[in-house]
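Dear colleagues,

For the upcoming journal club I promised to circulate an example of a predicted protein-ligand complex. I picked one with 4'-deoxy-4'-aminopyridoxal-5'-phosphate because it came up in last month's discussion. The inputs are reproduced below in full, followed by the predicted structure.
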Amino acid sequence: MIDNFMWIRGEIIRQSQATVNVLSPMAQFGVNVFEGIRCYWNEDKGELYAFRLREHLDRLMLSSRLMRLPSPYTPVQIESFMKLAIQANEFQTDTAVRMTLFADGQGTWNTCEPVSLFIASMAKSRTKLDEVPSYKACISSWERINDNALPPRAKVGANYINGRYAHLQARYDGYDLPIFLGRDGKVAEGAGACLFLVRNGQLVTPLVTSSVLESITRDTLIALARKAGMTVTERPVDRTELYLADEVFLCGSAAEVSPIVSVDGFVLGNGLPGTVTVNLLKAYLAVASGDNPDHSEWRTLVSSRT
Ligand code: PMP
């Protein structure tokens, strides 16, 4: 079992030693808000960079506000705890970080305090450019949660039950992953990742009001694509636009850029990861790892070899 060091309630301890009351609102009802952050190891520089940490911390605060789970710590404090959590493990490799503010103690689903924080990190390599994966997707018969029920804009643990229903159904039906439609029948996102399509050389992605998380990777890719001279449009997307697209991909901190090669059996392009998709994946990894020095404001040094 992997038993890395983690930070929880002010202490660095082994993951196996971290405890939460089984009757806590977090354990019983998923009352937590969290962030999944990637850190990229730059071998030449011997440095590990968290990608877009400021935006992740801002979103953690946004989720905490919406869930009325007041954070006992400022973003600056959380950043320093995160560095401690990572440095305790002396990682010299790509790393994934999970930071979670949770309803601790023994309350029920509507309890707001006490709120605690944990920050865990684990080695997780980036997508290998010589082994880019490809996924067969379906349109899920499960509807995406919406802003008047369980707001997708907040990154809340319990929201992921929606993704779980859809993902397990997709796998049961022989697909790799689901794509959600929202209440309005328009394309929303994947289970845990946002979506782009490419048609006639232009990128299209659903609006942030289309029942999606305000994805940091989505924002990154819009910026990188525009810089590369591509047209990117944020607008409502019909399901049949996915069937007719030249390329479709999902994106997220965990997913990075994940090519989808068919939707409901409609094969996209030549059935292989598309050129635009792969080029964006390369550009994304280059900037995230610091191989491309642009956008230094997106990289936070969290540990180094020396
Ligand atoms: N949508 C959902 C539901 C997610 O969980 C994630 C992953 N955090 C994303 C989209 C992508 O968001 P980001 O690019 O900020 O990781």
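Two points we might discuss: The longest strand covers residues 32-42. The CA atoms of residues 39 and 50 lie 4 Å apart.

See you all on Thursday,
B. R.
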